[in-house]
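Hello again,

I reread your note about wanting to compare the complex against the isolated chains. To keep things tidy I'm splitting this into two emails, and this first one only covers the full assembly. Below are the input lines as submitted, including protein chains and any nucleic acid or small-molecule components. They are followed by the predicted structure of everything together. The single-chain runs will come separately.
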Amino acid sequence: DVKVTQSSRYLVKRTGEKVFLECVQDMDHENMFWYRQDPGLGLRLIYFSYDVKMKEKGDIPEGYSVSREKKERFSLILESASTNQTSMYLCASATGYSNQPQHFGDGTRLSIL
Amino acid sequence: SQKIEQNSEALNIQEGKTATLTCNYTNYSPAYLQWYRQDPGRGPVFLLLIRENEKEKRKERLKVTFDTTLKQSLFHITASQPADSATYLCALSFQKLVFGTGTRLLVSP
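Full-complex prediction:
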């Protein structure tokens, strides 16, 4: 089975801090994704990567950046955390971009105080 | 604009009955449609994928239909069990994977 592991289940940070969320997958998938999930808004795509060192903006990239130095690892960076970035963050991986199942980690619930 | 609609109200049914969840969309022509299950505090888990040229797909107690004319997918769970209680998300493959907000299913013993 595919396993997607997110480094933290819960995280509390302060406004203005630089925050790193890490995600590792063990199935050699080319594509990796970062979403945030908020009540009533569903999953919204922040960034995705289709190969090592390659990245594309999703629907809501403002305030975020990503890094993919190795195929199995995809990091989400909040450059200067703000309270409106308090959310559930979900990482996923897949063999395809939109036509294959995505495999999700269990999420990081991030609170910015 | 493009829109995916899932009933935001929870669906309450009794154990043993068939649960039917709806996913409607507008202004999309998706090639694929997927259904996921999400438990509280967990990430979504893939259940089924159906292609635009398939009318129906089954997997054990699950059945998905895809009507591209009505722009609707129905997700059925037969002989429902309390363990089926969760939020179910539909997702459309259209240039990217776009998720609905999900419908919560509650199955009572």
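For quick reference: The first strand of chain B starts at residue 3 and ends at 6.

B.
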